[in-house]
Fold these 3 entries.
Entry 1:
Amino acid sequence: MSTTGALGEWDEKDSAGKPAPKLYFASVEIFVGKYLLDMYRRPVSSTGTTWCPEWWLHPEARLRLETMWRAWEHLRLEAATGMSVWLREHADYHMAVLLSSDGPFKGCTESSTPSGPCARCEATRRPKGCLSLVRPHD
């Protein structure tokens, strides 16, 4: 089962049996392209902070980004501290690993993205058939 476009059948109802809230971002690809890369702006280079526009080709990156999306979808509903918890416990941790010079994008280059301060990382569209790594029932 692909989780693209849904968080999976285990999320259709909450713990009280009520219907789960509607997703804000329909897929991890939309979450990354429309939210995460606008929020996390870092200078990118092949020797320091690294990013790959084809992030979906890297299994570790797919897993980390999908879990960040799932956590964001859950924590956005906690008005008081949800985003703070998401940033501290999820985004900051996983983005540090992803953008690390020794992270899953080691050796990738991004010649089309400016490497100056606050440069926006880019992402290319994931081809159809490239399934998410997170599949709970496989």
Entry 2:
Amino acid sequence: MKIVKNILTKNDCYKAGRTIAVKGLMIHSVGCNQPSASAFLKNWNRSGVEACVHAFIDGNSGTVYQTLPWNHRGWHGGGSSNNTHIGVEMCEPSQIKYTGGASFTCSDKAAARKVAERTYKSAVELFAYLCKQYKLNPITQICSHHEGYLKGIATNHGDPEHLWKGLGMSYTMDGFRKDVKAAMGGSTSADTSDTSTYTVKKGDTLTAIAKKYDTTVDELVKLNNIKDKNKITVGQKLKVKNSTGASNPEKIAEDGTWGPDTTRRAQEVFGTVADGIVSNQMQADRKYLGACHSSSWDFDSTYTGGSSLIYEIQAWVGANQDGTAGKETIKKLQTKLKSLGLYDGAVDGSCGTGTVKGFQKWLNKQK
């Protein structure tokens, strides 16, 4: 899943500046034959638009475009859902043509289904990510706009179920919730109380992972429905049985240098893709990141959306969430580490060895 931050700063909803305590997630579809998220990003980023969601999912690429901070009050569901729910819109195929209400015709169902499948899969990944971030139960705290109406918390709409049904697809909201749970490392068909999740690292093989967890390759393949046992990818989540005697995650060196090992461990802890890279950081902030090694930090001269890891760290420490590790974010991190007794240096916004050591100590305490 690729998330691009494109906050609609000119939209009146954003300018209202109200935040919410996130209690649920609501999935929508746009209600018109527009697969491109860019059309909405352009048309909604202005004053006078009486709607704003937290993200659009592009139908052509599956890319998620975040348009509001996740804890910002959106204008998406109507009723009380705006006060409690994050709202996400899936773009719809260009091949459909609305004929009235939720009814439509379709000129090419095969092509339209590809678009709907693409947005569905990205929505599952995004909702799994948000459920983890806000500690939500995917079975009880996810609904569609239509279900929101039936609950009395949203306006009368039929999305997105009308789209799936009209295209003759098997998707349902119950199935969606189960898929989100599965993407979080849960199971839709069996008890997972005896399993935990392992994130694939660079250089990993199923053979090595099986050896580490005292199991077999065949057991891993069966447990994770792997089609090609010779093909796993960095960042992939694998279920492993706790009963096999799996050990706690390996500790990283508390050496005060933020390199690939520290990044990867942080990504595992915060639930982002574990590729060992802090991406899309501002070159102007590099002066504050003295103990952050260039082998693990990617710098650019312009803002390109920031890093999902930094975004998660900012949420943890209570900093403004823009995905970039600037001076104010480092100050918040230092303050947090001080409160935990892991850092005794100055709160100066400079990420030196003492700050990194404190963070590494905290990471090593996490399961």
Entry 3:
Amino acid sequence: MAIKITVNKAAVGGADVEEVEEVQATVRLKAHKTLDGNILIKDHDMMDIVVIPAENKVMTLPKFGLGEEVYYYQKFLLDSLARTGVVGMTSIQGGIMRGVLEATMTQSIDENISPLQVALFEIEKFMKQYSIEEQFGKDYEVEIEDRFVNPDPDESTEYGEIEPEQTRRKHSQSDLPYYTFAGYGYMF
């Protein structure tokens, strides 16, 4: 069931408006609106993102069963939001539960710019970049696995074509223990 989230009620006729402004951007996220008005974004594989408009906060929650590597994704999201000015750099902190990171959204000096809209736009931009990088990583893993399981004929040899290393190096000088002189005495 899809839920439509309307951020600017004036644009859809909720207030008396002479002229409706043109839509500048559309955001597509797997988001749900909670009963208390928070926006829960579930696009990421490792974490959920909660935007709390009442408190002007962005919170990241690790998904169940994942280890410490989630922290780096959380930190990367909040750092990218801080670099774009959506959240304050000094407001990034640990949350009330273990594994939760949160940051406070900065207020705009222009009343026409909604911090919520900017946050959702930047989160969507982050998610697009994340999905591209994640797909590239998955494709690379499949390609490497396929290369080892089904190598090209010019990258492999038939069994017995090259004799094993144990018989090739049998009784060679490199198998004997070696000692080197290092100035202060013999070292091995």
